[in-house]
Amino acid sequence: MDEESILQEFDRLADQVDRLVARCEALSQENGGLRERIGALEARLEEKTDAEGRLLAERKEVRSRIDGLLVRLRQAGSAGGDQA
Q1: DSSP 37-82
Q2: 14: left (phi over 0), alpha (psi -120 to 50) or beta
Q3: 3, 23, 25, 77: least buried by Cβ within 10 Å?
């Protein structure tokens, strides 16, 4: 190999390295954006999970109250039927 072809090869390698560095930087930025998006989605999921838990607890409380009222109505109906 003569000196000129060696220099051309170095230039070609330098261009490849520059392209690889640019690609790595772009991928790093994309990765950062995706990590931020994942964090935001995880936070939203946690909020929704917490809200679902609260709603289930509230539903259980409402069901318990309704059951209690139904028992009281049955007892009142039984007691009223005994008096008549």
Answers
A1: HHHHHHHHHHHHHHHHHHHHHHHHHHHHHHHHHHHHHHHHHHHHHH
A2: alpha
A3: 3
The model's pTM: 0.63
Residues shown for the chain: 84
Give the CA radius of gyration of the chain: 36
Q: Calculate the average pLDDT of the chain.
A: 94
Unique residue bearing structure tokens 């990765």: 31
What sign for the dihedral angle of Cα 57, 58, 62, 63? negative
Using pLDDT thresholds of 50, 70 and 90, give the confidence band for residue 6.
very high
